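User: Hi! Is it possible to get a structure for several chains at once, not just one? Here's what I have:
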Amino acid sequence: MGRTNMKTSIKAAIIGFGRMGGFFLEEMQKSKRWEVAYICDTNPRARALAKKLSPGSQVIDNEQAIFEDESVEVVGLFALADSRKRQIEKAIRAKKHVISEKPIADTIDREWEVVRIAENSSSLTTVNLYLRNSWYHHAIKNFIAQGEIGELAIIRVCHLTPGLAPGEGHEYEGPSFHDCGMHYVDIARWYAGCEFKTWNAQALRMWNYKDPWWLQCQGTFENGIVFDITQGHVYGQLAKDQTHNSYIDMIGTKGIARMTHDFKTAVVELHGINETIRQEWPFGGKNIDRLCKLFADSIEAGRAHPDLPSLRDAAIASEYAWKFLENAGSNDLPAIGDLHTLKQIWERRRRLTNGYGLSQRF
Ligand SMILES: NC(=O)c1ccc[n+]([C@@H]2O[C@H](COP(=O)([O-])OP(=O)(O)OC[C@H]3O[C@@H](n4cnc5c(N)ncnc54)[C@H](O)[C@@H]3O)[C@@H](O)[C@H]2O)c1
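Assistant: Yes, the chains can be modeled jointly so their relative placement is included. Here is the combined structure:
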């Protein structure tokens, strides 16, 4: 299913023009390899913004025209999880390639159904598990592969930010540990190179919200590597000056490799048996430029680039994020704080124009 004419740009359509849809448009516009022919959103304010930012695109409120247009090669699905399965199925039926946001559906059964449909088709598909496209995780993985830290034994991941608060959107994506945490579940599995074996999770219902917004899970992989993952959007939403704490810490039998970032710059520190290396480069945001490049390469080659995250990877990460939440629910699940504080957080975040994970762009 490779392309015969590499000179023409790849005709794409974006469905869902919120925060992520906007990022994809921006990257596709920067590259000559893409032409965004359609932008579809059900919200009139999103469509008004789309017309302004991409005057050459057809801006529509009904996705159907995209699936009926045979010249559209790639559909980018960036709306919310409740519409994703239907849209992926339609795209594949119309013989289009798919770039999907995560999660790939709103329940685990539907996610596996999507995987089955995609794997039985000739369409190329990928999902925005963006950490897999980052320079820093590749630098660390390469260092480990060289034997510099001995045998990888312990994977420690932490991502705490004053980001999306409960009730602010993404209801179909689940609590914080599923919506955002599945990235960290996925990257731990990517490093371990095998499947989860055991887990034990502790969570907390911050601000007395019905769902936990902080969770820490520890456990093992089939190959004996142990992990701990800490994730929460509970990190000082009302602090005068907001900050975050995000790192990965890989501990081997002989050395260590770690990374931290401030969302602008990522710092990788590699302490191996032969070399000590410090790398400090731009963070790279959601690495959508790399995802789009790998996907364009795949379309031209007629087969998926091996680095592209698969829908199966996304279903596994989602399934384990749910399993860890379920496990936390069977342990003590305390509540601290009250809904009044949560209301103060909503009010503050509504006024912010520059903040962590703000959804409203219009
Ligand atoms: N990969 C990542 O790092 C990452 C980060 C943030 C969000 N996401 C995922 O991306 C998706 C979108 O998140 P967002 O933050 O951009 O949300 P958002 O609320 O900013 O944008 C969603 C947009 O989709 C539109 N929409 C909803 N249903 C639609 C439909 N049926 N047809 C067309 N348009 C529709 C909404 O009007 C809105 O403009 C979510 O599923 C989320 O999980 C992924």
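The mean pLDDT is 96. The first strand starts at residue 10 and ends at 15.

User: Great, thank you!
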